Amino acid sequence: MTSKNSVQTSCTQLTGKMDMTLTTAPPRLATLILLSALAVLPVNMISPSLPNIAATFQADFALVNLSVTGYATVTALTSVIAGAMTDRYGRRPVVLMAVFIFIVASVGCALATNIGVFLLFRAMQASIAACFSVALVLIKETSGEREAASKIGYAAVGWALAPMLGPMIGGILDELFAWRTSFVVFAILGAAMLALARFDLRETATGSQRSHGNYLAAYGELLSSARFWVYTLCMAWSMGTLYIFLGGAPLAVGQTLGGSSAKLGFYMGLVPAGFILGSYLAGRYASKHALGATLIVGRLVTCMGLLVGLILSMLATSHALAFFGPCILIGIGNGLMMPAANTGVLSVRADLAGTAAGLAAAMTTAGAAFIASIAGFFLVKSAATHVLLGMMLMSASLALLAALLAAFVDWRASKMVS
């Protein structure tokens, strides 16, 4: 039996007669928002529980910390593989399989008796990351290009809220019950999502539309596309700006807040709040404008904010809001940009939308981490506020350049069609 037939058989066994329940209408936007939110919730919800997990297993904290740092790495690999699988075997079977594995893994983490078993099941939990890319693809395949950008904007609100609220929920569950309760909650949420997906998700990729070519060839086709590169680079540089902020803000301005972690956490939380606002604005207005225009506006907002912050820093303005106020525009700009950029990536090849979503997500995450690591090298030598703002402005400017190139590529493509 071939590998392809094996996967198809396993998916068929899992779904049974589920095809009889397929709806004729597109999946509800609320379902896709919940699906994508569940995909990002496990990333950091257990962060407050790491010391207690280490104590339970009598394990070194660095090893236990792999459940967060290692999870992010497995998530990137999962996105690449799962994206290609959705193009070949369909969106719905991959979602059902991914959620089912997530439920089993969550139960396994809750019942783990040693750190090795716990980390194994924690890695398996990363299967849920596949649902993030699939949610994007389902929105794109059931909407027009501009409408898709608008819907992804609304979905992005859920993506931002989940990691913001996750640590707080995990901390409360840990304090009231125990750290294992978080994984019980994951299993319950997974079961609810599986039931919802079973009845509300229909297959959007018909047999004739699915890719049957070589996986490496599919990646090669996407990587040879100028449109794929400019949109992905725009996301990578934009997220790199955020990563530089997250890593550098405590170094640059932590002491100006009197060493208060609570104040630092509050001010840093303004940037994710800005992302929620930007995503909401994208949901409201992205459908009325071309993708390139939305992309450029988002990048200009961030660059202008950081430029104001840099000027204030050079003028020796010491109030915390002189730094964090302009940085809010990082979140607003990214919130405006991400829906349009994701829509652009998904539009490169209709039959490779899943592959494109997964590959772009992995490249964005890896690229942003690389950008932040380079910036960190300079920040260690000089943690001055103007150096941090300069690093962020440089990354944001490169994202703006990529946005301008994306708009040009789309303009040239429309001229060739006309």
UniProtKB/TrEMBL annotation:
Gene3D superfamilies: Multidrug resistance protein D
Membrane topology: Multi-pass membrane protein
The Major facilitator superfamily (MFS) profile domain, residue ranges: 28-414
Keyword field: Cell membrane, Membrane, Transmembrane, Transmembrane helix
Pfam families: MFS_1
Keyword match Cell membrane: yes
Transmembrane segments: 61-82, 94-113, 119-139, 151-173, 179-201, 228-252, 264-283, 290-315, 321-340, 352-380, 386-409
Cell location: Cell membrane
Main location group: membrane
Coiled coil, from the record: none
GO MF term set: transmembrane transporter activity
Keyword Membrane on entry: yes
GO cellular component, one term: plasma membrane
UniProt-listed PANTHER family: CHLORAMPHENICOL EFFLUX PUMP RV0191 (PTHR43124:SF3), PURINE EFFLUX PUMP PBUE (PTHR43124)
Protein name per Swiss-Prot or TrEMBL: Putative MFS family arabinose efflux permease
